[in-house]
Every structure is written in C-alpha cells, then in structure tokens.
Amino acid sequence: MKVKEIFFSIQGESSSMGLPTIFVRFSGCNLRCRYCDTRYSYDGGEELEPQAIYRRLQAWPCRRICLTGGEPLLQEKTALKELLALLKGYELSIETNGSLPLDGVLLGPEHRWVVDIKCPGSGMENANYWDNLKVLRPQDEVKFVLMDEEDYLWAREVIRRERLEGRVRLLLAPAYGVLKPRELAEWILRDGVEARLQLQLHKLIFGADARGV
C-alpha cells in the first residue's frame, strides 16, 4: 500500500470532529478538485504492507482511525481487506471521493464511510458514482464541499431527490477561504436542511497550510 503519511491529531471533519484520531493518508488520487487542499498526496509515499501500517498505529493510545488520501480505494483490494481485518474493533472512518464503487469493500459495524459527492464547483461532478448511495448505512456519512450558492442549491436538490435526510449523516462544508461559513449557515436554516455544517477544525487550530495535522 502506498502511504503518504501517518499521524496523530484532532479530527477536523465528519461526525468525529474534535476527537483525537490517528490518520493514515494514502498516496494517489484519480480526481483533481479545484479546491483540493492535499495535492501533495497525489504522488510519492512509502510502500507499506498492512501489518507494517498496523504496527505504526500502535505508537499512539487511540482506538479511532481515519483512512484518507488521496483516495484510499485506489489501494490494492486484497491489502485493503487485510488492513480492515486488522482494524476490527477500532472506530474507523474511510474518507473517499465518491468516484469508485463501495460495494466491493465490506466494512464492520464499527467502521463507516465518509463519501464525497462532488458538486459542480469542484469541476468533478461527472465523476460521482451514484450507485454508492444505495449501499450506505445509517452510520455512514455523505459530504458536499460547496464553493457558492449554486453548489448549495445543487446539493440540496440531490439530498431531497435521493431522500438522504434521516437515512445517512449529512455534512455540508464550505470550501475553505472561498465560501463564508455564515452564508452557508443562513442557507441551511432558511431551507431547513437536516445536515451538519462542517468546518475544517484542524485548519482553525493549526493553520490552513499545516501538514501532518
């Protein structure tokens, strides 16, 4: 598996926001979103076997893991399956860009997906793999990163069309430095969308350009 970095920090996103979390960031991504803040993970990294990754995770007293990228689902499927088996019993989230099928990866009850749906402002709207919405469970999360009100209205339409409210955990995130959180908050309240407004807490704590946090 190609690993860019492994680090211990505060989770800045998802329903685990604010909680201590160990991150495994994989190298490689098949998308090029306009607002991407982890372009350094597009290439490079260290080849590690699942057992080696697991051993490194033991350095910290934490049972909460986040697999991120890049794009974790670009990793070899057998190796990913082995790593998930090693992480049985951990609270685990897998952050995926939503362009690759989830149904070939079996998660345990204590594991969850955090799936992006790419809005028009990302430039990657055509990459969405819509069938993923059929396999999500109540503990799984769907995230929209929004650049403007057009993106928000598009996301609101998807949420209502796919009946996502109450079926999965919903996250609406303003693109950092592009959309003001207050504007997004006002739109959510105006329309009564049952979603969490997600700020990138790690950037507020450590700075927008900090790595390994």
Biggest β-sheet strands, sense, barrel: 9 strands, mixed
- Just give the CATH class: Alpha Beta
Helix fraction bin: 10-25%
Query: What is the β-strand count?
Result: 9
Measured distance between first and last alpha carbons: 21 Å
How many individual domains?
Answer: 1
In terms of structural class, how would the helical and strand content be classed? alpha/beta
Numbering strands along the chain, what is their spatial order in the largest sheet? 3-1-2-4-5-6-7-8-9
- Count of separate DSSP helical elements: 5
CATH level 4 superfamily: Aldolase class I
Report the sheet-strand fraction.
15-25%
Level-2 CATH architecture? Alpha-Beta Barrel
Q: What does the oligomeric state look like here? A: single chain
Residue runs with pLDDT of under 50 for 5 or more positions: none
H/E element sequence: EEEHEHEEEHEHEH
**Overall average residue pLDDT:** 95
Based on CA atoms alone, the radius of gyration comes out at: 16 Å
Overall shape: it is globular
CATH fold node name = TIM Barrel
Helices and strands, with pairings:
Blueprint: E1 2-10, E2 20-26, E3 46-47, H1 50-57, E4 64-68, H2 77-86, E5 91-96, E6 111-116, E7 141-146, H3 149-161, E8 169-174, H4 181-191, E9 196-197, H5 201-206
Parallel strand pairs: 2-4, 4-5, 5-6, 6-7, 7-8, 8-9
Antiparallel strand pairs: 1-2, 1-3
